[in-house]
Amino acid sequence: MIKYPKYTRDESGRCKITEKDVLYIRHRYELHGETANALSKQFGVSWGAIKNVVDEEYHQYRLAKYRARNQRNSKEYQRLANKKCYQRMIKMKTGLSEWKSDQNKMYREKEKA
After folding, report:
1. How many distinct structural domains can be found in the chain?
2. Can you give the C-alpha Rg of the chain in angstroms?
3. Do both 33 and 47 map to the same domain?
4. What's the confidence (pLDDT) of residue 42?
5. How far is 89 from 83, CA to CA, in rounded Å?
6. Deepest of 42, 76, 91, 100, by most Cβ within 10 A of its Cβ?
7. What is the pLDDT of residues 27-84, one digit of tens each?
């Protein structure tokens, strides 16, 4: 398996915010109390990008959400989901057959009476 080298923000061409910008954003957010919305407009990025930089809990939440989405796309997840769906379907069918038998008993009792 080929492992790609890890790039910093400055070396990667995909990042709009450099390491210096990150330090500056954290400083202004924490000490000066500027909002993420105002900082996002100034740096030309989304509100979520600023929140990822300044709020560790938000960053962890986004990572967990991304990993969960990737897991849902995996074959193993699909196999387990199909298995659970099949088990639910079996339970529903048995419940339905029990309900029908109860209805038939009630109908027969009404006919006898």
Report:
1. 2
2. 28
3. yes
4. 92
5. 10
6. 42
7. 999 898 899 999 999 999 998 889 888 887 887 887 777 777 777 667 766 676 677 7
- 103, two tokens: 């209805």
Name which residue leads in pLDDT, 89 or 31: 31
Which residue is it, tokens 């298995």? 83
Full DSSP string of the chain: -PPPPP--TTT-TT-SS-HHHHHHHHHHHHTS---HHHHHHHHTS-HHHHHHHH-HHHHHHHHHHHHHHHHHTSHHHHHHHHHHHHHHHHHHHHHHHHHHHHHHHHHHHHHH-
